[in-house]
Amino acid sequence: MHELSIIQSIIDTVETEVTRKGGSYRVEAVVLQIGTLAGVETGSLEFLWPAAVQNTLLDGAECQIEIVPGTAVCSDCGTGFSMINYFDPCPNCRSHLINVQTGEELKIKTIELCAQPADVPATATN
Ligand SMILES: [Zn+2]
Predict the structure, then answer these.
(1) How many angstroms does the Cα of residue 107 sit away from the middle of ligand 1?
(2) Which of 28, 49, 117, 121 has its CA 20 to 30 A from that of 41?
Protein backbone atom coordinates (compact mmCIF):
# COMPACT_ATOMS: atom_id res chain seq x y z
CA MET A 1 0.00 0.00 0.00
CA HIS A 2 1.37 3.35 -1.13
CA GLU A 3 0.47 5.32 2.01
CA LEU A 4 2.02 2.66 4.26
CA SER A 5 5.38 2.96 2.49
CA ILE A 6 5.16 6.75 2.87
CA ILE A 7 4.64 6.37 6.62
CA GLN A 8 7.53 3.90 6.74
CA SER A 9 9.89 6.41 5.15
CA ILE A 10 8.64 9.11 7.55
CA ILE A 11 9.42 6.79 10.47
CA ASP A 12 12.91 6.14 9.07
CA THR A 13 13.58 9.86 8.65
CA VAL A 14 12.31 10.80 12.12
CA GLU A 15 14.20 7.96 13.81
CA THR A 16 17.40 9.03 12.06
CA GLU A 17 16.85 12.65 13.16
CA VAL A 18 16.12 11.74 16.78
CA THR A 19 19.05 9.31 16.97
CA ARG A 20 21.34 11.99 15.56
CA LYS A 21 20.27 14.41 18.31
CA GLY A 22 21.25 11.88 20.93
CA GLY A 23 19.55 11.85 24.33
CA SER A 24 16.14 10.48 25.02
CA TYR A 25 13.15 11.94 23.27
CA ARG A 26 9.56 11.08 22.74
CA VAL A 27 8.03 12.20 19.48
CA GLU A 28 4.92 14.26 20.28
CA ALA A 29 3.81 15.08 16.78
CA VAL A 30 4.95 15.10 13.20
CA VAL A 31 3.73 17.86 10.89
CA LEU A 32 3.62 16.84 7.24
CA GLN A 33 3.19 19.02 4.19
CA ILE A 34 1.38 17.16 1.46
CA GLY A 35 0.50 18.73 -1.86
CA THR A 36 -2.81 18.02 -3.53
CA LEU A 37 -0.86 16.86 -6.60
CA ALA A 38 1.41 14.49 -4.67
CA GLY A 39 -0.96 11.58 -5.20
CA VAL A 40 -1.28 10.83 -1.50
CA GLU A 41 -4.57 9.75 0.05
CA THR A 42 -4.27 11.78 3.25
CA GLY A 43 -7.35 10.05 4.65
CA SER A 44 -5.83 6.61 4.44
CA LEU A 45 -2.48 7.94 5.64
CA GLU A 46 -4.16 9.24 8.81
CA PHE A 47 -6.09 5.99 9.12
CA LEU A 48 -2.97 3.82 8.84
CA TRP A 49 -0.78 6.06 11.02
CA PRO A 50 -1.57 4.83 14.58
CA ALA A 51 -0.96 1.17 13.76
CA ALA A 52 2.03 1.84 11.51
CA VAL A 53 3.97 3.79 14.15
CA GLN A 54 3.39 1.27 16.94
CA ASN A 55 6.63 0.04 18.53
CA THR A 56 8.66 2.73 16.81
CA LEU A 57 9.99 6.01 18.19
CA LEU A 58 6.80 7.58 16.87
CA ASP A 59 4.49 5.39 18.94
CA GLY A 60 1.70 7.65 20.18
CA ALA A 61 2.83 10.61 18.09
CA GLU A 62 0.19 12.71 16.43
CA CYS A 63 0.20 13.06 12.66
CA GLN A 64 -0.73 16.56 11.53
CA ILE A 65 -1.18 17.11 7.83
CA GLU A 66 -0.93 20.47 6.11
CA ILE A 67 -2.43 20.39 2.66
CA VAL A 68 -0.58 22.43 0.05
CA PRO A 69 -2.88 23.46 -2.82
CA GLY A 70 -1.67 22.94 -6.36
CA THR A 71 -0.73 26.00 -8.38
CA ALA A 72 0.81 26.26 -11.82
CA VAL A 73 1.93 28.81 -14.41
CA CYS A 74 1.29 28.34 -18.10
CA SER A 75 4.48 28.29 -20.17
CA ASP A 76 2.69 29.59 -23.25
CA CYS A 77 0.69 32.56 -21.96
CA GLY A 78 2.03 33.04 -18.44
CA THR A 79 -1.33 32.65 -16.72
CA GLY A 80 -1.09 31.52 -13.13
CA PHE A 81 -3.88 29.25 -11.90
CA SER A 82 -4.76 26.74 -9.24
CA MET A 83 -4.37 23.18 -10.35
CA ILE A 84 -6.87 20.65 -9.13
CA ASN A 85 -5.74 17.69 -11.21
CA TYR A 86 -2.26 16.97 -12.49
CA PHE A 87 -3.16 17.09 -16.17
CA ASP A 88 -5.36 20.16 -16.10
CA PRO A 89 -4.66 22.41 -19.10
CA CYS A 90 -4.22 26.17 -18.86
CA PRO A 91 -7.67 27.71 -18.27
CA ASN A 92 -6.75 30.65 -20.52
CA CYS A 93 -5.25 29.05 -23.64
CA ARG A 94 -5.78 25.30 -22.99
CA SER A 95 -2.04 24.68 -23.28
CA HIS A 96 -0.54 21.67 -21.55
CA LEU A 97 2.89 23.28 -21.30
CA ILE A 98 2.64 24.05 -17.62
CA ASN A 99 5.09 24.66 -14.82
CA VAL A 100 3.81 23.27 -11.55
CA GLN A 101 4.67 25.71 -8.73
CA THR A 102 3.24 24.08 -5.65
CA GLY A 103 1.24 20.99 -4.79
CA GLU A 104 3.90 18.30 -5.29
CA GLU A 105 5.15 18.54 -1.70
CA LEU A 106 5.53 15.45 0.39
CA LYS A 107 7.75 16.33 3.27
CA ILE A 108 8.16 16.54 7.00
CA LYS A 109 7.74 20.15 8.09
CA THR A 110 8.21 19.79 11.83
CA ILE A 111 9.08 17.07 14.29
CA GLU A 112 7.87 17.94 17.79
CA LEU A 113 9.99 16.28 20.42
CA CYS A 114 9.57 15.99 24.14
CA ALA A 115 12.71 15.35 26.12
CA GLN A 116 12.31 12.56 28.60
CA PRO A 117 14.74 11.48 31.30
CA ALA A 118 16.27 8.12 30.49
CA ASP A 119 15.27 6.62 33.83
CA VAL A 120 11.57 7.37 33.45
CA PRO A 121 9.76 4.80 31.34
CA ALA A 122 7.77 6.16 28.45
CA THR A 123 4.11 6.50 29.18
CA ALA A 124 1.49 5.73 26.62
CA THR A 125 -0.72 8.60 25.60
CA ASN A 126 -3.96 8.58 23.76
ZN1 LIG B 1 -1.95 29.43 -21.13
Answers:
(1) 29
(2) 28
Over residues 81-86, mean pLDDT: 92
Q: Establish if 61 belongs to a structural domain.
A: yes
Of 3, 2, 4, 17, nearest to 108 (Cα)?
Answer: 17
Q: Record the pTM.
A: 0.82
pLDDT at position 125 is 55
Q: What is the CATH number of the domain that holds 49?
A: 3.30.2320.50
Per-residue pLDDT averaged across 76-95, rounded?
A: 94
CA 39 to ligand 1 centroid distance, Å? 24
76 occurs within a structural domain = no
What distance in angstroms lies between residue 105's CA and the mean position of ligand 1's atoms? Answer: 23
Q: Quick one: pLDDT band at residue 104, thresholds 50, 70, 90?
A: very high
Q: How many domains does the chain have?
A: 1
Q: What spacing in Å lies between the alpha carbon of 92 and ligand 1's midpoint?
A: 5
Neighbours of 118 (CB within 10 A): 7
CA dihedral of residues 21, 42, 107, 110 (deg, nearest 10): -40
111: domain range? 2-68+103-115
